[in-house]
Design goal:
The chain contains 7 helices and 13 strands. The protein is globular and about 50 Å long. It is α+β, with helices and mostly antiparallel strands and 229 residues long. The two termini are 27 Å apart. The strands form 5 sheets. Strands 6-1-2-3-11 form a 5-stranded mixed β-sheet, with helices on both faces. A two-stranded antiparallel ribbon has the order 4-5.
Length: 229
């Protein structure tokens, strides 16, 4: 017997920093037409196999720098054992336009961070209740303290997405950016309509003698946990 099934709508949101480097990777799936879905945040230091490369593995940051968005998609698909329907690049300045209809976002910042941007501007996001203007969304998502591992930064990603989806659901369809079912707007429109599960990619820090996890900040995917996920 042969069953014909419709692939789960799946997207990879690729954040770029102001210099065009990889700043974030988020896997989005919307398995139900009733709304809601799943978000998986990936540490950018996740190390994946890269055939024909020496050494034959690299972090997501290096894969993106060396091979671009196509290489990143291919390596992540291999890790997941599943195809990705759409890859969406979000440049640093685009987050402000995406969030503007419901900005500022009010939510509890789980972990405070004091951060200096690459152009020398110091910003502070204290722990606890904050109001996040649209213009500072990219800075908030990229913010990382000097002693923080990337998995700590991703807890702020979850707080942001939780607040954004809640604000969109309260504001109604007109606040969702873009039109149709593609791009960030299309997937966010589906996510905002129901319960959403968020998690960080199951991965284990790669220890390096003499260095703290924050200094090295590389992770090896946990294959069995990813299969279960």
């Amino acid at each position: 017997f042969q069953a014909l099934v419709t692939p789960t709508p799946t997207a990879l949101i690729v954040d770029e920093d102001a210099q065009g480097g990889l700043a974030g990777v988020t896997l989005v799936t919307v398995p139900s037409q009733e709304g809601g879905g799943n978000l998986v945040f990936m540490p950018v230091g996740t190390v994946l196999e890269v055939p024909l490369r020496q050494p034959p593995e690299a972090s997501l940051v290096d894969i993106y720098a060396e091979g671009g968005i196509g290489a990143l998609e291919q390596r992540i698909e291999t890790m997941l054992g599943a195809g990705i329907g759409e890859v969406i690049k979000v440049p640093d300045g685009q987050w402000a336009r995406l969030v503007a209809p419901v900005a500022p976002l009010s939510f509890d910042n789980p972990i405070g961070v004091n951060y200096t941007t690459p152009d020398g501007v110091t910003v502070d996001f204290p722990q606890g209740p904050i109001q996040l203007p649209a213009a500072q969304v990219a800075t908030y998502l990229n913010a990382r303290g000097p002693d923080e591992a990337d998995t700590v930064r991703l807890t702020r990603h979850e707080a942001f997405w939780t607040a954004w989806l809640a604000a969109l659901e309260a504001a109604g369809p007109s606040a969702v950016p873009g039109e149709g079912q593609t791009g960030v707007g299309g997937f966010v429109r589906s996510l905002a309509g129901g319960p959403t599960t968020m998690m960080t990619l199951p991965a284990t820090p790669i220890p390096v003698p003499g260095l703290s996890p924050a200094d090295w900040d590389l992770f090896r995917p946990n294959t069995l946990e990813i299969l279960a996920m």
